[in-house]
Structures are given as structure tokens and as C-alpha cells.
Amino acid sequence: MNFLAHSLISLEIDEKENKKTLYANFAGDFYKGLVETIELPDELKEGVVLHRIIDKISDRNENFLNELLTEKFGIFKGIVSDMYIDHFLSKNFDSLFNDNLNNIENKILYNIKINEKFFPDNFKRTFQWLKSGKVMSSYQNINFLERAFYGISQRVRKGEILKSAIIELQKNYNLFEEKAIKEFFYVKSESIKVFNKNRRIKKKC
């Protein structure tokens, strides 16, 4: 759900460590089962590993957004948290990263597309939507975000509660903004630590 957050973590790793995690981290939800059995080159499989590390850390009980989301959204709190985070990253991108979001989004989409031959069938439509709708930058727009929540509510079982996500966001907008940004930077830091630790262990084996 939070394609921008996942991508930003990959970009930092790939640029600093000369890795290629971006594609499979971005598309990680579309790869199931053991990493060893996934039909991807080993250098791309590292992106699936990173994706799962990020998700595991985000799913911890101590997620900074949980106290504001659990009672209202229950099992859907993770979806809401992810989309709120991408909203605030998109909205505050220039000030948080001292960079232009449109340029970064184009860079991300270009680096995903060059791996098109590896796209799972069910990812192709999602990628086209993300590309044609400029979704990562459009998430800063509340109306666009509301439509995205509505679309997901139609696709997941008992997802009607997601239609109220924007109402809840607007009730505590500033607090959600603070916690969402704090959560992203915590997850980024911890994910990179775990990813690098796993790499060192793998090298020793």
C-alpha cells in the first residue's frame, strides 16, 4: 500500500550499497512463498527480503500510529497506516528530503519498468495505475487519497470501514502527520539495520 515509503528505503540502500532492491521491494506484495523459490535473479530477490523486513517492522504492536487506529480500524489498521504515511511523505516531500517528488517518482517508475519482463501478471495492472495516475505524488491530495481508500474498500472483504479513513484523518490531522513521519523514519532506520545484518550473516555462511 505504501509504495512511496518502500521505494525511498530502497533508493537509499541501492545508492549507498550498489544494490538493486527497488523493483522487488516495490512489488513485494505480489511475490508469495519462500524467497528461494521465487523466480527472480538473486540480486532482485534481495528486494523481496527487504520488503518483508519493512512489513514486519511496520506490523509491530508499537507502530506509532496504532494507538490512533486500532480501535476504529482493527485488522485494517495496517492498510490505513501505510496510506497515511505515503500521504504525509508526499505532502512534505520537499522539506523532508530536500528533493523534488516528481523527479523521484519518475526515477522510481523508470527503475521499476526496466524490470518489466519479471512483472507478475497481477502486478501489471497495478503498475499501469500507479504510472498513469502518478499515484505517489497524487497521494498528497486528500480527494485522491479518499478515492484510493474507497477503491480498496471495494476489493477487500469487510472493507467498508476504510471509507471512513479520511474522516478519521481529518479529525486528528496534525497528530497523524507527526506520528506518520516519525513512523517512517523509524522503520527506515530499523529496516536498513536488519537488512545489512542479514547480508553480513549470509556472507559468513
UniProtKB/TrEMBL annotation:
Alphabetized GO MF terms: [acyl-carrier-protein] phosphodiesterase activity
Keyword Hydrolase assigned: yes
InterPro entries documented for this protein: ACP_PD (IPR007431)
Superkingdom as given in the UniProt entry: Bacteria
Pfam family, one: ACP_PD
GO biological process, one term: fatty acid biosynthetic process
PANTHER family: ACYL CARRIER PROTEIN PHOSPHODIESTERASE
Name of the molecule in the record: Acyl carrier protein phosphodiesterase
The organism's taxonomic lineage, starting at the top: Bacteria, Fusobacteriati, Fusobacteriota, Fusobacteriia, Fusobacteriales
